[in-house]
Amino acid sequence: MSDVAPYRDLIAKIGELLHKGREQAGRAVNTVLVQTYWHIGQHIVEFEQGGSEKSTYGSELLDRLSNDLTSAYGKGFSRSNLFQIRQFYLKFPKIQTLSGQLSWSHYAEIIKADNDLEISFYTKQCEKENWSVRELKRQMKSLLFHRIALSKDKQGVMDIAEKGADIQQPEDIIKDPYVFEFLGIPQQQQYLEGELEEKLIHNLEQFLLELGKGFAFIGRQYRISLGNRHFYVDLVFYHRILKCFVLIDLKRGEIEHTDIGQMNMYLNYFAKEENVEGDNPPIGIVLGAYKDHILVEYATENISNQLFVSKYQLYLPDKAVLSAQLEKLLAGDHF
After folding, report:
1. What is the H or E stretch that residue 176 is in?
2. 224 touches 233 (CB < 8 A)
3. b or e along 74-101 (b: 16 or more beta carbons within 10 Å of the residue's beta carbon)?
């Protein structure tokens, strides 16, 4: 053909239609599969609750179903799969609450959560942030719900469970602790701050997932020049939802009051020298392996900038400890 450009345009348009069509077909298949499993779970539970059948089969029902369904319809009906399907119906008893955005693999992970608050949170958060199954697994393993919930009051916990975590103010992007288990650094291994920074940059995708929605990476070792002196901010991001710079300084050991003072200086500089029209005041996060709550309280008192101090850890948090703290919070106790 002599007219190459229109032909290429035709190919591109057909390709776009195919891509959209396949996406829509995939979503439709997924929706049907999720709803089918829900109805199968419903039939199993209603059969169990039907009376004499329950006492007849008891815990052997799933074993019998697995054998008979596999013989009749092939793979996909192992006892563990049927157990998940049954749990799926019990955890989501109203079919109207199911999301067309989530796959069966998402739901199979979500129903592993311990309680209804967690289940609702991870469902909403998957929808909001379009998590893959892999991302969902990581967030559940790192106890994201617990870590966000412990920064809220009792009503705040109920709100994030019902609606997911909204980002409306600087406090909404802060976690304590941050979890960097994806770096693979053993808990007792000696490392330098520069090495920690290097590993975070090399694992930027996982780091951004841990930071949360809305972060865009600007640079590392961002230079600030004051007179003849140069200072360097470890990591600089821009938050597209809050419309502000986010500065992160990493400390290998315990956070000192001088670290907080230095971050305050960085924030003053960014507010005056880096912000442009439309930018909100910058946010500073000092991240250390340890922090003294009393020292932090006194060091941050009367600071007008949005400055936060959090811990990071190189291993997954202790679920029993965080669960106990959350239970106390929901009971109205202090800890």
Report:
1. none
2. yes
3. eeebeeebbebbbbbbebbeeeeebeee
Q: What is the DSSP letter of 253?
A: E
Are the CB atoms for 325 and 335 separated by under 8 Å? yes
Question: Is 60 exceeded by the pLDDT of residue 2?
Answer: no
Whether residue 315 is predicted with pLDDT greater than 80 in this model: the reply is: yes
Let me know: does 45 contact 89? Beta carbons within 8 Å: yes
C-alpha to C-alpha distance for 209 and 185, rounded to whole angstroms: 18
Decide if 252 contacts 191 (C-beta within 8 A).
yes
**How many CB atoms are located within 10 Å of the residue 229 CB?**
7
Q: Which two tokens stand for residue 20?
A: 């959209």
- 């990493």: which residue's tokens? 250
Give the DSSP letter string of 6-65: HHHHHHHHHHHHHHHHHHHHHHHHHHHHHHHHHHHHHHHHHHHTTSHHHHHHGGGHHHHH
End-to-end CA distance of the chain: 76
Going along the chain from its start, the domains and CATH numbers come out as 4-101 (no CATH), 113-166+317-335 (no CATH), 178-316 (3.40.1350.10)
Structure tokens at 161: 């469970």
pTM given for the model: 0.83
Average pLDDT rounded to a whole number, residues 303-330? 92
242 within 8 A of 283, measured Cβ to Cβ = yes
What is the C-alpha to C-alpha distance for residues 11 and 234, in angstroms, rounded to an integer?
A: 46
Distance CA 290, CA 176 (A): 11
The CA distance from 193 to 189, in Å, is: 13
Q: What is the dihedral of CA 315, 320, 326, 327, to 10 degrees?
A: 180
